[in-house]
Design brief:
The protein is mainly β. It has strands at about 20-25, 30-40, 50-55, 70-75, 90-100, 105-110, 115-120, 125, 140-145, 170-175, 200-205, 215-225, 225-230, 240, 245-250, 260-265, 270-275.
Length: about 290
């Protein structure tokens, strides 16, 4: 049986108690799919409005049935429907809880989110103070090989803004696209202890293979005390500590060839070398 109600406006006035619209797939409480309304019996004084999906033990004050391990979902479908396009094809948002898990997964343009929040799409996530204009938003979005930043090449047909030869699948953080642009601020809240524990919190960049900790290595660390390490997680002083070598390239150089290198001797003295690491002013001796 199907009931259709067509009204320009519909208002329901409820002055007492808990009231809800309940949806069943069959007779009996065990077939309850969900409810919409003021349904919180445990705290009857609350005036919250609930949209609830999932089986409910109505006889025992909404006590969850721990034996139920089904996937409970609440979906929002938007867009035109046809005989071949169903509401499931037009899902814009999904809220899911597996059994009695303490957390839910939320998906935007995602039918079955596997993370606490999963967003699919190329427009990105925007954050702005008050303006609804797109150019006023700071945007976090995925990019691929079609992005114009990936396609910018030098005279040697090498990528200038992305690692050359790397997979062109990245994440972009973009400040507002207006005349003033904006800045990205990374805040490290830290302590004011003295001694060896003074401001040890840091922003670290690491490299790993498929999140394998055995393969992980440090790329850079930025410590709240002002110590910065490149290639090391143990910068020795305020300022920059580099493990390995520091190479300086010509401003217009477009190859990977090394032209200038800073090297250290056993005493820690830094010397400037050109091409092969021979200090300026040194003597090259050949034999044979």
């Amino acid at each position: 049986m199907r009931w259709i109600l067509i009204l320009d406006q519909l208002s329901i006035l409820v002055l007492f108690g808990n009231v809800s619209v309940e949806f069943y797939k069959g007779l009996g409480d065990s077939n309850l799919l969900g409810q919409i309304g003021r349904i919180e019996k445990a705290a009857a004084t609350r005036d919250d409005l609930y949209v609830h999906a999932g089986p409910t033990n109505l006889s025992n004050g909404f006590t969850p049935d721990t034996s139920i391990k089904t996937l409970n979902s609440f979906r929002i479908s938007l867009g035109a429907l046809t005989t071949s396009i169903t509401p499931y094809d037009q899902i814009g948002a999904t809220f899911q809880r597996i059994g009695t898990s303490s957390t839910i997964n939320v998906g935007i343009n995602n039918k079955n989110p596997l993370l606490n929040l999963s967003v699919l799409g190329t427009s990105g996530i925007g954050i702005a103070h008050t303006s609804e204009a797109k150019y006023q938003h700071t945007i976090l979005r995925p990019i691929d090989s079609n992005n114009n930043l990936v396609g910018k090449l030098n005279g040697g047909q090498q990528r200038m803004l992305f690692p050359n030869g790397g997979v062109p699948a990245r994440i972009e953080i973009s400040t507002p696209n207006n005349t003033s642009g904006g800045s990205v601020l990374m805040v490290l809240n830290t302590n004011n202890l003295v001694g060896t524990n003074f401001r040890k919190e840091a922003f670290n960049i690491i490299s790993t293979l498929q999140s394998d900790e055995d393969d992980a290595s440090i790329v850079a660390t930025f410590v709240a005390s002002g110590r910065v390490g490149i290639g090391t997680n143990f910068p020795t002083h305020t300022g920059l500590t580099i493990q390995e070598q520091l190479t300086v390239k010509n401003l217009v150089q477009e190859t990977d060839a090394v032209t200038k290198t800073l090297v250290t001797d056993n005493s820690g003295l830094v010397k400037h070398a050109v091409a092969a690491p021979v200090p300026l002013g040194g003597v090259i001796m050949w034999s044979g």
